[in-house]
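Hello again,

I reread your note about wanting to compare the complex against the isolated chains. To keep things tidy I'm splitting this into two emails, and this first one only covers the full assembly. Below are the input lines as submitted, including protein chains and any nucleic acid or small-molecule components. They are followed by the predicted structure of everything together. The single-chain runs will come separately.
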Amino acid sequence: MPEFQTTPGTRDILPPDAARWRRFVDVFAGVVESAGYEQIILPMFEDLGVFQRLGDATDVVTKEMYDFVDKGGRHVALRPEQTAGVCRAFVQHHPNLPWKVWYSGPNFRYEKAQQGRYRQFDQVGVEVLGVDDPLLDVEVIALAHGFYRALGLRNVELHVNSLGDTGDRARYVAALESYFRAHEIDLTKESRATLERNPLRVLDSKRAEDRDVISQAPSISEFFSPEAASHFAAVQDGLSLLGIDFVVNDRLVRGLDYYRSTTFEFVSTALDAAQTAVGGGGRYDGLVEDLGGPSTPGIGFAIGLDRTLLACDAESVFGIDSSGTDVFVVDATGGRSALLLTAELRNAGLRADRAFGAKSMKSQMKSANKSRATVAVIIGEDELARGVATVRPMDGGEQSECPLGQVVATVTDIVKKAK
RNA sequence: GUGGGCGUAGCUCAGCCUGGUUAGAGCGUCAGGUUGUGGCCCUGAAGGCCGGGGGUUCAAGUCCCCUCGCUCACCCCA
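Full-complex prediction:
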């Protein structure tokens, strides 16, 4: 056991997995940039106050924030998500409306790790500030949906709900609380504890003993104002227009206090774990105002890399990319020829690798094979003396000789044909 | 923070119940299999304070306690 290891809840993403992570973000960027979203890069830690707006009644702020006091006495927190940071940046910089941004990168929470949940976890996501059109909700949901499809995932369900406007939500929470209080005796003690903190979250209980009480609980839809009802109807209509399947799940309540109106979640039915949500989001009209800005509607979603990649594994899609190098230079004459040739090949745009340490030709050929090179270029004493190189296709084709000056052209030709 | 399971070679694991000669396998790595050439095959080598500490015993990878870590679940979910 080495003296130092990754600290709990963190881990190294080694090759070749790291390349897969990068492709994941590349695919996401391609999807959202085609819809006019621009990248934003936020600090990884901010004043704790920025994140305290997430909700007082949740454990999120009280025990799961990765916070500390820095040497200047500032109470800061590693960002637990990026929505609050985006809103803070919006208030700080006054961008033109609508502000459509996307982001990727690590977030942090202080809690015990389990499958698909780490203390440092990566997300990609988008936020749009300044538009309350329900058709924007549809666009945002459609982008997430399109991204899952771009990855190749098929077993992802879209759940949508609305929490109504601020007044609706407050009246619903009150009604829910009195309902659960009346049936407290039938709830598990865990759910009774949740009831004390946040009645909405009781709806999220997966415990079988709670199921009956929850199924009889009032639905948020009974509390919709006419405006909230028509907004939600327009969202559903838009999704149908795009041919995106969804289920209305009136038990879907997101945990944070700032959510209003449209909420949605993507659930992988391919995952066999306690955590099956691979992404989610919703409207948070009011968050910008909470952070000291003008009243501004907002909506966004975040998608977790770890869990989404687990879903990809479960569906055997978006696998590790096993593309190797184009050409491997074998030099049995000391290595100076390889130094020169790999430089020339790389300058010509080819992926070229070589061995170091003056190994035997056999050993270097093994390395060439492992590099999955399309072609090997071999320089032995004989070639060096005659000013030529042996070019050997690694798929078993006939090898040939060519003058050193034509190696790049010859290799380029073979690599092109192989593709 | 709470509970269950698990820590033996780089990786996946056997051995532990029923303590006893130099702790094993597969894969991977490295080197060979004559005269300059990969994959398949064959041979060989390197690589382990058996997570750490304490205890029981003539003797501990094996039994007991503690601790650290991983993992699954609970809580919570950004």
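For quick reference: The longest strand of chain A covers residues 99-108.

B.
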